[in-house]
Design a protein that fits this description.
Blueprint: E1 19-22, E2 25-35, E3 39-44, E4 49-54, H1 61-73, E5 85-88, E6 94-100, E7 105-106, H2 107-111, H3 114-119, H4 124-143, E8 146-147, E9 156-158, E10 164-166, E11 173-174, H5 204-219, H6 234-240, H7 252-259, H8 270-273, H9 276-286, H10 294-310
Antiparallel strand pairs: 1-2, 1-5, 2-3, 3-4, 4-6, 5-6, 7-9, 8-11, 9-10
């Protein structure tokens, strides 16, 4: 087993009301805020900060080394839940970190639920605005020579002012310390699906594939790029680059070859209302296996936003949407 995956010596982990050291100062964990696969998040007696306490099985050498390095970086950016202080027990054992408290609804719950879209009266202008905010967070981290790694809608929150915040930032890849988690649907076909992410250093090409994927999944709310009619799974389609959407002005034979694979239902008309430069970019990534730079994606989405606000592009999230709820699921 690689050192990154070796767990730290087992201890009794702090819980609600426990005394801990937050950046060397004694503090108290408040009530439980949330519970996830990596750990628990508690309120604290430090105003504006919450504390993530890792589970025993995720309290590893990798996470300890990474959090200590991230705290040293002293990165501060609005909407980014960057680790700010190391948390230890009173005896000095590493257990987690403190970060800014971000409020809001998880992006996937906001966008991928039909009743939420209807209740919040969201349009394509909102989708593009959320994406541009997400890409700005990612671009900022890239400027610090940091790869996000696990780019996934569940790691973003939208607050009441439509501002997008980024959570679970402790999983990023920084220097030679990898991102230990990932979702197959957001990972490049070249990445072996049987590897341990805790021992795999992602490349910028890997990152750019994930960026293209989250853009697609938000523009087609909840639908992965390789979801299609047929017998293969999404992971198999990703591996084989089976992208089911035809290029604009494609030859008739090519059009008929892929048209019968496109998902039906609410999503089937979305492709046709996207700008041609975004369609072409998706084909470059998901069919040809090339990559589109982050600045290019930002430009394409800014152009799309201009067209949407000018009324020269459809603002409907699902054009011709006459299908009754609930939606079928491709995810």
């Amino acid at each position: 087993m690689h050192l990154n995956e070796i767990m730290l010596p087992e201890i009794t982990l702090p819980e609600e009301g426990s005394k801990v050291r937050i950046g060397g100062q004694e503090g108290t964990l408040g009530s439980l805020l949330s519970f996830g696969g990596e750990g628990k998040i508690f309120y604290s007696d430090v105003p504006g900060k919450v504390c993530k306490i890792y589970h025993s099985e995720t309290r590893t050498h990798l996470r300890k080394n990474k959090i200590e390095l991230m705290v040293e970086k002293k990165i501060r950016k609005d909407g980014l839940s960057w680790p700010q202080e190391v948390i230890t027990t009173l005896d000095g054992d590493f257990v987690g970190f403190a970060m800014p408290e971000l409020l809001g609804q998880r992006l996937d719950l906001l966008l991928f639920d039909p009743m939420s879209l209807r209740t919040n009266a969201l349009s394509r202008i909102d989708l593009v605005d959320f994406l541009l905010q997400i890409l700005q967070h990612i671009d900022y981290l890239h400027q610090q020579e940091i790869l996000v790694g696990d780019i996934n809608p569940v790691n973003f929150l939208v607050d009441k002012n439509a501002k997008v915040g980024m959570i679970d930032v402790d999983s990023v890849q920084i220097e030679n310390l990898p991102c230990p988690v990932g979702s197959d649907e957001f990972c490049a076909p070249e990445i072996p699906r049987d590897i341990s992410y805790a021992n795999y250093l992602r490349s910028m090409d890997d990152e750019l594939f994930s960026i293209a994927t989250i853009i697609f999944v938000i523009l087609f709310p909840g639908l992965p790029p390789y979801a299609q009619q047929g017998t293969q799974t999404i992971v198999e389609n990703t591996r084989d680059r089976n992208f089911p959407y035809k290029k604009r002005n494609a030859r008739a034979g090519q059009s008929s070859l892929v048209a019968h694979l496109m998902p039906v239902g609410r999503w089937q008309y979305v492709w046709g209302i996207l700008p041609q430069e975004i369609q072409s970019a998706f084909h470059e990534v998901f069919s040809a296996g090339n990559r589109i730079s982050l600045p290019s994606w930002i430009t394409f989405l800014q152009n799309y936003a201009v067209a949407l606000k000018a009324g020269t592009a459809s603002r409907q999230i699902f054009p011709y949407d006459l299908i009754p709820y609930p939606w079928p699921s491709f995810c």
